[in-house]
Amino acid sequence: MAFLMNAWYCAAWTEELETEDRFARKLLGKSVLIFKKQDGTYGAIGNACPHRFAPLNKGPREGDTFICPYHGLEFDTNGRCTRNPNEGGTIPRAARVPSYPLVERDSALWIWMGDPKKADLDLIPDFSMIRAREGWNVVRGHHVTKANYELVMDNLMDRTHVQFLHPLLKLMGEQPENFQRIQSVEQIGNMIWDYHGEVNCTKYPLLDALWPEAPDIVENYFDVRWEAPSNMLLNAGTVEVGTNREVGVHLPMSNLLTPADEFSTHYFWSQARDKNIGREEMDEMIKAGVAHTFQNEDGEMVADCMEMMGTNDLMRLNPVMLPGDAAAVRARRILSSMIAAEQAEAGLV
After folding, report:
1. Cα 83 from Cα 62, distance rounded (Å)
2. Which of 5, 39, 281, 294 could make a disulfide contact with 114, Cβ separation 3.0–4.6 Å?
């Protein structure tokens, strides 16, 4: 399966390197060694020693030097072999591993696994809405699901499954006569906005914890911004009806998907809130809630669907389409077009 290579993917949260000085992670089918340098910046190189492909993360580290645990070849943070401790000491010309641009922004480590000359920092998606700042709390997490990333992307862009799959997010009781669901899709260049709204609706169970003083009838909004390859901003919240989304609880969330390979996906999420801030128990409740929702509801369902499909290519099965699929289908088409163009430029098709 071809991935879009010249793009920024989330590789990790910076906090993952607070307790470890490096770790390996499979990204786009390749094992990558992710680390914090001695100067405090971050780096990423291929994790497989080019001699016998031993994992560098299992060898010792001395400063900014990574030592192969099998035959002792030493590599710097640019992937160059700097020492061969074996007889003769000659360093073969091909003794190097790939080096990948890795940049920190808003606590995420963004990796570029394509042509490093094309790694434009201006192309890193804007998730400043989730940035830690006064008056807001931010919590983050990372999960892996056994499903192709496009299927996970479809799920996160689909609001219609919530009432069937997520009990804690389902609207309670009968809805008022003036209840209204709103959905529209907008494409701006290669960016997709999928707008969802629920106006004059009852509360969902989780709202009592997030905003205890919420009125009985509220307005929910869930606006998803998708950017290739699979980075999504969910601008969401619950507000008093008729307040132009100003009075209520606001819950913007990043949903960053990075393929581990064609069969599994890293899901990095980060959620900000402006209610019940400064409460560690609320942070833990949100973390546990997202983990449960993704692992036991969304993640499990998407993995089950992929098993039933027997393939990771949904579109080849000619699936029935519903109105709620419009945004995800557009995103798939854009992504497919970008991959095809990249492959053609590289002479791979």
Report:
1. 13
2. 5
Residue 64 has a pLDDT of 97
pLDDT at 167: 81
Radius of gyration of the chain (CA): 22
CA distance 251 to 222: 9
Q: Residue 278 and residue 177: Cα distance in Å, rounded?
A: 38
The length of the chain in residues reads: 349
CATH of the domain at 339: 3.90.380.10
Instruction: Tell me: do 37 and 162 sit in the same domain.
Output: no
CB-count exposure of residue 73 (10 Å: 0-12, 13-18, 19+): buried
Q: Are residues 48 and 173 in the same domain?
A: no
Q: Give the pLDDT confidence score for residue 172 in this predicted structure.
A: 83
Counting the structural domains of the chain, the total is 2
Low-confidence ranges of the chain (pLDDT < 70): none
How big, in percent rounded to 5, are the helix, strand and coil portions of the chain?
25, 35, 40
> How far, CA to CA in Å, does 344 sit from each of 2, 10, 29, 189, 227?
12, 25, 21, 21, 21
Q: Where are the beta strands (DSSP E) in 202-339?
A: 218-227, 231-239, 248-250, 253-261, 264-273
Question: What pLDDT is stored for residue 248 in this prediction?
Answer: 96
301 & 159 share domain: yes
The pLDDT of residue 195: 95
Helix axes 326-345, 149-156, angle to 10 degrees: 150
Residue whose tokens read 């007889």? 87
With beta carbons less than 8 A apart as the criterion, state whether 3 and 259 touch: yes
